[in-house]
Specification:
The chain is an all-alpha fold. It has one domain. Helices cover 63% and strands 0% of the residues. It contains six helices and no strands. Helix 1 runs antiparallel to helix 2 and helix 2 packs across helix 4. The protein is globular, with a radius of gyration of 14 Å. The mean pLDDT is 89.
């Protein structure tokens, strides 16, 4: 896979010149989130029932994961920790 930064920049570069800030941010979040392993990305969408919310969650600091983003943990091989938190969210046992 290409450098993640280049993947995101390429996606933003394909937006129209008059794209709103919201459209740009949505593009950045959704493109970056798709760098997660496909099984994790689809599981996140399944739990949140919304691709935009799933993308935001993958890129947001998470207290249940020690204050880091889920994508950061995935990058260091802690995918199971991310999936465990998703399971707790799904079953309402995440505080």
């Amino acid at each position: 896979m290409k450098n993640k930064r280049n993947v995101v920049l390429n996606a933003v570069g394909q937006l129209p010149d008059n794209a709103s800030w919201q459209e740009i941010l949505t593009c950045v979040y959704s493109t970056a989130a798709k760098t997660a392993p496909p099984d994790v990305y689809s599981r996140t969408i399944e739990v949140f029932n919304n691709g935009e919310k799933a993308s935001y969650w993958l890129l947001s600091q998470n207290t249940g994961l020690g204050g880091v983003t889920p994508l950061s943990l995935i990058e260091v091989g802690k995918t199971k920790d991310v999936l465990d938190v998703l399971g707790r969210i799904e079953y309402g046992v995440y505080g």
